Amino acid sequence: MSSTTTGSTDAMVEIRSVHKRFGSLEVLRGIDLSVRTGEVTVVLGPSGSGKSTLLRTINHLEKVDHGWISVDGTLVGYRRDGDKLYELREREVLRQRTRIGFVFQNFNLFPHLTVLENIIEAPVAALGRPKKDAVAAADKLLARVGLADKAGAYPKQLSGGQQQRVAIARALALEPKLLLFDEPTSALDPELVGEVLDVIKDLALQGTTMIVVTHEIGFAREVADTVVFMDEGRIVEQGAPGDVLDRPEHERTRAFLSKVL
Amino acid sequence: MSAQTDIRPPSPPAPLAKSNDADRLRIVPVRRTGQRAAAVVALVLLALALNSVIRNEAFQWDVVADYFTTTAVLRGLGLTLWLTALVMVLGFALGTLLAVLRLSGNRVLQAVSWGYVWLFRSTPILVQLLFWFNIGALYPEILGVRTVNLLGPVTVAVIGLTLHEAAYAAEVVRGGILSVERGQIEAAQSLGLGPWRRLRRIVLPQAMRSIVPPAGNMLIGTLKGTSIVSIIAVQDLLYSVQLVYHRTYQVIPLLLVATIWYAVVTSLLGIGQHYIERHYARGTAGVR
Question: Can you give the pTM of this predicted structure?
Fold first, then answer.
């Protein structure tokens, strides 16, 4: 019997027993995590704890060595048949990725394309939307991130904060079910962090399901439904921000928080 | 007070000039005597050379002028130009394919691409050309047609130059693709763009910035390099003037005709390259 669906109905993301190694280094050592639809999960942890790698496995930028991940009830990157997980062809993986938005630390905007061209590229090329519709949708998204007047600019003509807001608009253009943020403010000058976090907060208020890897503790406290603390490839503890940030149970969480707060 | 009082103010500057005469002072740059002498020597040598070129009757500038725009020379120039264009287009098409194979995940395809580049870069183009010219000795017939009839000198020139060009183009394109940040490809993958679209729309346009300068040099090199096909009697620019001077024995003036045409065309190509480079730099020369 073949099946692609798993799990309960209100979980947008389910991660079960995920392991990942790079050569001799085991980066993820058995991760279990559920993210409910409409919730914001913030992942904290020291660098090298595996949080970025975990995020990248969720849209199959990294393949897992063991375990599985499902998004919106569909296995990511694999098809299950009995006790076997068959790797999907690239075309099928790409189709899955159009339902998962990813925002990078370094924005990764396409420098040779204008802001508008960056945003409509995927809707037109990957989803086959008519260009006119994609442009109309892009204009609305740009207004939403406060950059309505920048459609014709090239990325390098924008500040870091503006570039990241364009990158968020580009991810939203595919109308994803889930948004993943990989340290979205780490490459920004301090005075530009706020404008990006405001956009992400706005998305959270509208009920977008998000997983955010960040070092911004204040943001986690304010926006997160769940805070996850990772260290050395494992989830050390997770819970409501008030619990994990103010009353951490584990010594490692306390040590980390005392350094960043 | 604190220890800061121990730090003495700097002593006042020596009274070099009266305070009110600054407007009258003239600044005298240092004399660069050596440079001036070298420039004079260079100018004298240049004048001597120019004088000999103009005065020396053997250059036969009138003959140069007579032949510069004759039909035979212009036909030769035309062949040189379209041969260059065709070899560049075909060479870069094949070279791009080889670069993509080399960067693919498939070990066999990587090895094939590597082997091709190795083979065609490690033998002289003259030898390759003579080899293709004599391919009939290896395969007297291709698909029932006599090889000699199928592959005329011009066809052999196109094939020989293209295969050689592709080996170099492959390396240039591969370097260009590798110069594109990994994050660009990951972003395109995250947006669900397929491999062909990623290559054509995201990677190659950015790779062009590193591809155009060496490709421009290759174009100029290829234009001049096509003169090698005169060895297999293809009537390019060089062979056309050779045909004339074999008849008239006016070797120097006719070589000058070819020389001037080559210089004119390469100069024009250099100007074109400047504008192409500017086109592919868009979005990077950002004004903040």
Answer: 0.80
